[in-house]
């Protein structure tokens, strides 16, 4: 089944699509993990382990001497599950202890609020306070978005300039229209408000990332420097063969071989995306044909990567369906940069502007032709990075594995491996102290948010054109 037919059987699915907004792999909430005591869906990180609310409360009741009263009538061999957990308090408590539950004293770990302060607000670039309405923002922009949507007042505000006011910590109160528009561009939505509810498990994951160096103390400064174009571009010198040889020497042979496989898959399938066919008269068939081509190329891309062979067909189809638009969007941005002009006049369907259907689509479905406005900052970042084909290919593979929350162990392992390979390669190529890796991978949630917008607009397009037929 094609990417188009899988998720757009009926128009009512738009609501469910909009609820799929995902945050960064580095920031995602793992609430879907099972309780380590009884197997029920966990509610968070409690007393040193991943547990459900029931087992957390049971342990807190038991730990203060209550456990001394527990007796087992089955030689302490009871199997603890969701349905049997209340039958033997003794074995349930023993399992709590076995998985490492304990009353944790106040530690010296950094607070979650302190970690978020290192990440800039997606709207005004001041220090963020958490994930609000589906985006990482400060308290000010969170409150502004809530007021605008609650009072239903966005339509009352107009920009006195050209709807392109610069929004930062100093100017954010000067133009409400542009500030609200930037909130939407950052991925904020009422449906996304659930993403802001951060469980203890989410906080534990954030602290673990900070401890491992995945949330860098200088990240905010580096991002701000990039946005202000203060980073200097290193001029190219005709020494590429020498650089590539040294890179191969510095990396483990099996890692370089994996990178080469992924690079070759990218070059053969995604480096040059085809233009939309002009030989078909039916408008819906034109769009369908192009979207099917995108889906097929993403599938062919991962089929050529040996690492993906362990994933079963159904799961592979699912991640392709969920991530295709993120992958294609980045490829189109890269193609735009190759043209020599940042944010050149491209459209998502890659349809020629001279096509007979182009003007019709632009007038009625402008979203596909205005995506370049949403990707403007991202393209500027890509221009500064000057990624080679290996880095692009690894990033595309990461976009595929980082989508969704209910992933199998095989995909999670592959995702972690890809993050490591990309880090190792960029560290060897750009230096251990270079932070391009962190700035690049933090763009992943942005691409996934646009992916969801594209899914919704494809659904609208299908409903509209089908109705006209």
From TrEMBL:
InterPro entries linked to this entry: NHR-like_dom_sf, Nucl_hrmn_rcpt_lig-bd, Nuclear_hormone_rcpt_NR1, Znf_hrmn_rcpt, Znf_NHR/GATA
GO annotation (BP), single: hormone-mediated signaling pathway
Residue ranges constituting the NR LBD domain according to the UniProt record: 257-469
Limits of the Nuclear receptor domain: 32-108, 118-195
Any matching Pfam family: zf-C4
CDD domains per the UniProt record, alphabetical: NR_DBD_like (cd06916)
Domain of life: Eukaryota
GO molecular function terms attached to this record: nuclear receptor activity; RNA polymerase II cis-regulatory region sequence-specific DNA binding; zinc ion binding
Keywords tagged on the record: DNA-binding, Metal-binding, Nucleus, Receptor, Transcription, Transcription regulation, Zinc, Zinc-finger
PANTHER family in UniProt: ECDYSONE-INDUCED PROTEIN 75B, ISOFORM B (PTHR24082:SF473), NUCLEAR HORMONE RECEPTOR (PTHR24082)
Protein name: Nuclear receptor
Upper classification of the organism: Eukaryota, Metazoa, Spiralia, Gnathifera, Rotifera
């Amino acid at each position: 089944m094609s990417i188009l037919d899988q998720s757009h059987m009926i128009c009512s699915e738009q609501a469910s699509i909009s609820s799929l907004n995902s945050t960064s792999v580095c920031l995602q909430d793992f609430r879907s993990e099972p309780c380590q005591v009884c197997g029920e869906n966990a509610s968070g990180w409690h007393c040193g382990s991943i547990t459900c609310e029931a087992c957390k409360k049971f342990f807190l009741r038991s730990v203060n001497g209550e456990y001394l009263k527990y007796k087992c009538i089955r030689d302490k061999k009871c199997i603890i599950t969701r349905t049997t957990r209340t039958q033997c308090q003794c074995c349930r408590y023993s399992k709590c202890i076995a998985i490492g539950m304990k009353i944790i004293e106040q530690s010296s770990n950094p607070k979650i609020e302190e970690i978020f302060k290192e990440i800039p607000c997606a709207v005004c670039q001041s220090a963020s306070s958490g994930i609000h309405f589906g985006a990482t923002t400060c308290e000010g922009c969170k409150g502004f978005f809530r007021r605008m949507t609650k009072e239903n007042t966005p339509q009352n505000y107009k920009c006195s300039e050209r709807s392109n006011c610069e929004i930062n910590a100093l100017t954010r109160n000067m133009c409400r229209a542009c500030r609200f528009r930037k909130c939407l561009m950052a991925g904020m939505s009422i449906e996304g408000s659930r993403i802001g509810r951060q469980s203890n498990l989410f906080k534990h994951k954030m602290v673990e990332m900070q401890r491992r160096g995945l949330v860098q103390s200088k990240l905010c400064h580096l991002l701000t420097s990039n946005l202000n174009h203060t980073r200097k571009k290193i001029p190219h010198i005709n020494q590429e063969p020498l650089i590539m040889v040294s890179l191969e020497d510095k990396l483990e042979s099996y890692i370089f071989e994996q990178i080469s496989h992924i690079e070759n898959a990218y070059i053969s399938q995604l480096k040059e995306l085809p233009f939309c066919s002009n030989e078909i008269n039916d408008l819906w068939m034109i769009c369908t044909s192009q979207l099917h081509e995108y889906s097929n190329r993403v599938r062919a891309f991962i089929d050529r990567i040996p690492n993906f062979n362990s994933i079963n067909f159904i799961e592979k189809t699912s991640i392709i369906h969920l991530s295709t638009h993120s992958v294609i969007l980045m490829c189109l941005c890269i193609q735009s940069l190759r043209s020599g002009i940042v944010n050149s006049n491209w459209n998502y369907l890659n349809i020629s502007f001279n096509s007979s259907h182009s003007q019709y689509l632009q007038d009625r479905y402008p979203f596909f032709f205005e995506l370049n406005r949403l990707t403007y900052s991202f393209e500027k970042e890509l221009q500064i990075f000057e990624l080679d084909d290996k880095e692009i290919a690894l990033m595309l593979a990461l976009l595929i594995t980082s989508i969704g929350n209910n992933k199998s162990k095989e995909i999670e392992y592959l995702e972690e491996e890809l993050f490591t390979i990309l880090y190792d390669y960029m560290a060897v190529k750009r230096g251990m102290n270079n932070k391009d890796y962190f700035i690049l991978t933090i763009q992943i949630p942005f691409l996934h948010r646009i992916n969801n917008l594209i899914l919704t607009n494809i659904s609208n397009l299908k409903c509209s054109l089908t109705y006209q037929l």
